[in-house]
Write a structure and sequence with these properties.
Blueprint (H helix, E strand, L loop, with lengths): L58 E2 L6 H14 L3 E3 L7 H10 L8 E6 L6 H15 L6 E4 L8 H14 L5 E4 L3 H10 L4 E7 L7 H9 L3 E5 L11 H10 L3 H11 L3 E2 L6 H8 L8 H8 L18
Parallel strand pairs: 1-2, 2-3, 3-4, 4-5, 5-6, 6-7, 7-8
Helix pairs in contact: 1-2, 1-9, 2-3, 3-4, 7-8
């Protein structure tokens, strides 16, 4: 499963993406560092699950807006062994995600499907109405996890989460999650929500480890789900991660995903092409020894790559 040495890697452009960070290859800063992956035998790999049954490695679909490509990415991932698919109203790809689930040779009930309600739809009636619209676009009868995408704009803890609780009681959603919530906002949400909140999806990677937030979630029995777990390619530029990757003969994304798993964090890396989907999945074979965890924990650099004005840390 190892990558070929760097000087033997072929410079290729797969699916129009940089193979290092999944951005457009023509404009990416890594455009002179394309690499090809050897075929990896991922047969038989299964993701560990949280106590609530959520697979700890999933497929993120942010920016995967070409309908055919998105559908094919989801189908490819599911047939490879993925069982956790993440989307959102704001991604504008729920229909394509649903199409990929339908096309895959995998039973719907075996797929853990998550989507998110956007910040303009968090008033009570809008939550109910747009949740039904999302489920219709996805072509399913229920979703496994429905998130509040951000605690912003129309979000009100009591009103918003009352609507989520109603959806939960009706069986339209199997679980409630929040996203981008700081510890104090999480505590308020837990008090306001009649149904359990099982997950907080946040940006988390070796350059933004968020130990205080992880501890707060652990204290309340809330799982942490990491989006942008590769820091949008930033993990490729960290010597500590490079050294661990070279030590094991694997890719930097595999190192980062294994590090997150050692921290008890679920990761949903975005990937579109089969080679990236497979490389991320192969991280399940890696168990980092304590010295490698310590090396990655020692990274001094800090970077938040998703930082909108309405982010709670900017208020």
């Amino acid at each position: 499963m190892a990558l070929t040495p760097l000087d033997e890697r072929t410079r290729v452009k797969a699916d129009g993406e940089c193979s290092r960070c999944n951005h457009n290859a023509l404009s990416c800063s890594h455009q002179n560092g394309y690499m090809s992956f050897e075929d990896v035998d991922t047969a038989g790999l299964e993701s560990p699950r949280t106590t609530d049954g959520m697979p700890m490695l999933g497929l993120g679909t942010w920016e995967n807006t070409d309908p055919e490509q998105c559908s094919e990415s989801v189908r490819t991932a599911l047939e490879m062994g993925y069982r956790h698919i993440d989307t959102a109203q704001a991604y504008d790809n729920e229909a394509a995600v649903g199409d990929g689930i339908e096309r895959a040779d995998v039973d719907r009930d075996d797929v853990f499907l998550a989507t998110k309600i956007w910040i303009s739809n968090l008033a009570y009636d809008d939550v109910i109405h747009t949740a039904h619209e999302s489920i219709e676009r996805l072509g399913v009868e229920y979703v496994d996890l429905l998130y509040v995408h951000w605690p912003a704009r129309t979000y009100d803890p009591e009103e918003t989460l009352s609507a989520f609780s109603e959806l939960y009681d009706s069986g339209l959603i199997n679980a409630i999650g929040v996203s981008n919530f700081l510890p104090e906002q999480l505590e308020t949400a837990l008090e306001a929500c009649e149904a359990p909140i099982v997950a907080n999806q946040v940006e988390l990677h070796p350059l933004l480890p968020q130990p205080e937030l992880r501890e707060a979630c652990k204290r309340h029995g809330v799982e942490v789900v990491a989006y942008s777990p590769l820091a949008r390619g930033g993990v490729f530029d960290q010597p500590e991660i490079n050294s661990v990757a070279d030590k094991h003969g694997i890719s930097e994304p595999q190192v980062s995903l294994a590090w997150l798993r050692e921290k008890g964090v679920t990761a949903i890396p975005k990937a579109t092409g089969e080679d990236h989907i497979r490389d991320n999945w192969a991280s399940l074979e890696l168990e980092l020894p304590p010295e490698d965890i310590e090396t990655i924990d020692g990274i001094d650099a800090r970077e938040r790559v998703v930082d909108p004005d309405f982010g709670p840390w900017n208020q």
